[in-house]
Design a protein that fits this description.
Fumarase C, Chain B, domain 1, Fumarase C, Chain A, domain 2
Amino acid sequence: MTTTHDTTTADPAGKRVDGDQLGAAHTPSSDPSGLGAQLALGGDVSPGGDTTKLWAKGYSLHPTIERYEAARNAALDAELARHDVWGSLAHARMLHRVGLLDADEWRTLDAALCALAVEAEQGKLRPALAEEDIHTTVEQALVARIGAIGKKLHTGRSRNDQALVDLRLYTKEALLSVTAEALATAEALLALARAHEWTPMPGYTHMQRAMLSSVGLWATSYVEALLDDCVALEAAYTLNDQSPLGSAAAYGAPLPLDRAYVAEQLGFARVHHNTLTAANARGKFEVATIQALTLIMLDLSKFAQDVLLFTTSEFAFFRAPAELCDGSSIMPQKRNVSALELVRARAQTVAALQSQALSTLIGLPSGYNMDYQETKAPLIESLHITRESLSVVRLFAAGLEPQPERLAAACDAELFATDRAYELVAEGVPFRDAYRQVAADPGAQEPGDLVARLRARAHLGATGALDLPGLADRLAAEASAWRRRRAHFAHAIAALTGGDHAAPDGGATSTDADGFGAQSGGGLI
């Protein structure tokens, strides 16, 4: 049997992983997007030769069919290795709990799976082409190490509910990471607003100067947009926070499976109750997740376009740090903010990936169909793109240097035409009459004290009432809520992978709420 994982037994003991690592990037493959040349039909996915498939019936699959069905999926599944091992650890505990594994069998399986968890963390557990997926890779590795006991792990499971649980664990973990980056980006924008709350700048509509604005208003508009996006991320997380294990191939199994126990062991909030609903949610939850990511990318693309425009020599409202700019191979003077052009472009990519995943699902009958496999790549790519794009925008938010003189100079007389109309309204002139009077000579109004004009816009949410402390409190509350989700998830995974071979008693082992209490194979991103 040819596989790409190391078949030597790893030491299940290892370092503890601090809970703050939840939210840091985890890229076990050399391709951080997980979507490199290995995904192409002819890509290198380490053909496995005579590897026995889980569905083997005594004949060989045609090589073209095998590669067409499995090459792309096997490459993607390298990202799910840790999550597949976590699901297997919980499933093995449940099988022992309900009497389908004896104590010795469970302890043997648990120790071997903890060793595989270490290898998965190190990026050594990768499916071969002939194995088709990570589920087969794990089972084959177990059989190679502990013999017939490894063949018992699949009792009560299908690769369908295995794929579901892997994707939900992966998505929950990735959403925690994306949200942490979104909140960090919002904090950087809030810091920019604090430093320049009273720095005037023109506001635009239809790409034309419209009314007085401020750097504070502009920056906090994106802070609040990211807070809105966190609502969508929370909805996606809630959908994925349901355990599908035990749904098997969509119709359950004639065994005394304890689905609630498995859900608790894996840190899920609840069981996805109806087994067919759980199966039919494949792809649907991926689309919901990508939709939340699309909303983030929509906001980032708007920020990117603003900065691209405002850093041109024609505007020169902001200056970007040199280390965030590249240059031209022919024009010595060029300093380009090209990374933001890619943010703008990749927002289109994520929107297209949402459409791709949704279109794949429309019209499918209930129950499993291999079409679902085609929603995995859009999910993984969208999560990577969004997290990386947030990191880029955070750098720009932290490094942008407003140019107050240029900004003030752009606040010309016509910017205050509406102000003049409202001054006439205060004198008793009906607004429509005041509007027409000012329209006849819109440049007649003097700009005056720009900061005083900013302060005069004192109603809720305007330039004079941004309530930066209140916004900071909202960010802190959002971060606290996501830390609680992270701690709950981390606690469960730590208990699973910590090498505690006492008989399962229905409760997670005690661990620090902010720590993982696990070897390196159990850490979350």
